[in-house]
Design a protein that fits this description.
Length: 371
């Protein structure tokens, strides 16, 4: 059977014109890197402002008087308490407490919830929500909008020239507003790099003009998915399908913050028996963070061993950290082995290399929060 044809984002022509190296990702032909290369793109985002095309992500609205209650039936967050103008990270849960996907859900205006899900999972997520939403809640897929991410310490200054209201936003704020000469935007101060920055939902037809306007600022450069992955790994942020999947619970994944205190008390979310038991301490595996002391980067699938060489866990994401100058990795291991400062090993190409456990994130987050 032939491979399915890759979809194109509204910025595909702009990526080709910029000399991007393209590859298939989540069913789309996406820019992996530009001529500067991953290392320089990574460093630029950490020191200035990187612009990412993430239009492959899934955007949707959940509408109706029952929208919030219906959404809470498949997530562990308290979305009834989510104030207008705010956004929250959450997960879709299976009946056994596994993570079907992670997502952002916001109240940028009075039109129910606005959600953004992972590109590789969006069709399954939307089918799942269509089947699970109850009452008059309904899912409306948004197919005619692009999504950009502007990330880095200069992101706010670069964006404010086109959207002055952006400077008044704090981390996890969300707003429906206009910018770039009247373009309809859904803007959130958030991202996937650990840096300050924004995600910008906008009409697909306007994406090339807005992309070009942002890149006209010398502080902004286009950044591909290669650097996006190294940036999120340094920030300790999970990648769905690798660090989290339907077998992994929020507690195992180090995402306990996604469970609101009120929902914990009520225990009224899917898989609550398992998740609450794990939160109370009956946890067989937990997320582990590793710095490779010597040797090659430990990639996904590398075995983690203890001081005696016994297999104790597995790496789910790994690579070289441009910011730290050493290989880093995250994975799963028994909780007792995950405390910082322990010496373990990883097996790479048949050879065991020494690693040290550490805290997450590897590189501190620089989100702009309200005082």
């Amino acid at each position: 059977m032939s491979e399915p044809e890759l979809k194109l984002t509204p910025l595909h022509a702009a990526h080709l014109a910029a000399g991007a190296r393209m590859a298939g990702f989540a069913g789309y032909d996406m820019p992996i890197q530009y001529p500067d290369g991953v290392m320089k793109e990574h460093a630029w985002t950490r020191t200035s402002a990187g612009l990412f095309d993430v239009s492959h992500m899934g955007q949707a609205r959940i509408l109706g008087a029952d929208a919030t209650a219906a959404f809470e039936a498949v997530t562990p967050g308290d979305f009834t308490a989510l104030k207008p103008g705010r956004q929250k990270y959450s997960v879709l849960l299976s009946d056994t407490g596994g993570i079907l996907d992670d997502l952002m859900a916001a109240r940028p205006d009075d039109q129910g919830l606005f959600i953004v899900v992972n590109g590789a999972c969006k069709d399954e997520d939307f089918h799942f929500l269509d089947a699970k939403l109850s009452g008059d809640a309904r899912l409306v897929r948004i197919e005619d909008r692009a999504l950009l991410a502007l990330q880095g310490p200069e992101a706010a200054a670069a964006l404010s020239a086109h959207v002055p209201a952006a400077t008044g936003m704090a981390f996890m704020d969300s707003a429906a507003l206009t910018g770039f000469g009247g373009v309809d935007l859904i803007l959130s101060r958030s991202g996937y790099t650990g840096e300050d920055g924004f995600e910008i939902s906008l009409p697909a037809a306007e994406a090339p003009r807005v992309w070009a306007a942002l890149l006209s600022d010398p502080r902004v450069r286009p950044i591909g998915l290669g650097a996006r992955d190294s940036l999120r790994l340094e920030a300790g942020l999970p990648l769905y399908g690798h660090d989290v999947d339907p077998s992994v619970s929020p507690i195992e994944a180090g995402l306990a913050f996604a469970l609101s205190p009120a929902r914990r008390r009520r225990g009224d979310f899917p898989g609550a028996a398992r998740i609450l038991a794990e939160a109370a301490g009956t946890l067989a595996r937990a997320r582990i963070a590793l710095k490779v002391v010597e040797g090659a980067p430990a990639r996904e699938g590398a075995v983690i061993v203890d001081a005696d060489g016994a297999e104790v866990g597995i790496v789910t994401s790994g690579g070289f950290s441009p910011s730290l100058g050493v290989p880093i990795a995250i994975g799963f291991a028994p909780p007792a082995l995950c405390a910082p400062g322990q010496r373990l090993g990883v097996v790479v190409r048949g050879r065991t290399w020494p690693v040290e456990t550490t805290d997450l994130p590897f590189v501190p987050h620089r989100y702009v929060r309200r005082p």
